[in-house]
Amino acid sequence: GDLGENQLFWGQKELQQILLLLLALVAVPWMLFPKPFILKKLHKERFQGHSYRFLGTSEMDPDSEPDSARSRHDDFNFGEVFVHQMIHSIEFVLGAVSNTASYLRLWALSLAHSELSTVFYEKLLLFAWGYDSLIFKLVGLIVFAFATAFILLGMESLSAFLHALRLHWVEFMNKFYHGDGYKFKPFSFATLADDEE
């Protein structure tokens, strides 16, 4: 849609769309490529000048080299680091798309509730107010009040609760929760006081 007089400057819509698209296209490779190559460079720098072998009981016996010395050069696997970073990048992009869809869904629901309230107002209250009968106006007002209280307010409250729960579960968890094997321990002031003693 056209922003009309709400534009901050001429061409704002086009510039923002192009800029955001370019930023999104640059951000994905920026998340994916630097970390594995930086880690590879750091690993090479760490062992620069440490390419000598330990002398064991026999210089000709490669099995006599200690395991710690041999594994020190082999502990960096570029492919594994790259695949791990690729998985995290894909998760981040999918999470961003999912979160955007979540907020669009919230916007659509609020728009639907706004339209529903307009329908109730126009088809119940204004329709009843068009008649001269006081009883008809009173019935229209009562039906409008019940529709507003039970349908709009009830649905809106339930919707707000469910969306808060869903946003916490889906969006909060995909940013901060890592199932690293730590047992969940709920916060309690009693256990906090016990730990301090």
From TrEMBL:
Per UniProt, subcellular location reads as: Membrane
InterPro entries cross-referenced by the UniProt entry: V-ATPase_116kDa_su
Keywords in alphabetical order, please. Answer: Hydrogen ion transport, Ion transport, Membrane, Transmembrane, Transmembrane helix, Transport
This entry's Gene Ontology molecular function terms read: ATPase binding; proton-transporting ATPase activity, rotational mechanism
Q: What is its main location?
A: membrane
Top-level taxon: Eukaryota
One GO BP on record is:
vacuolar acidification
Quote the function comment for this protein.
Essential component of the vacuolar proton pump (V-ATPase), a multimeric enzyme that catalyzes the translocation of protons across the membranes. Required for assembly and activity of the V-ATPase.
Kindly give the membrane topology term recorded for this protein.
Multi-pass membrane protein
Q: What's one GO-annotated cellular component?
A: proton-transporting V-type ATPase, V0 domain
Q: Which family does it belong to?
A: Belongs to the V-ATPase 116 kDa subunit family.
Query: What stretches pass through the bilayer?
Result: 15-33, 134-153
- Name used for this protein in its record: V-type proton ATPase subunit a
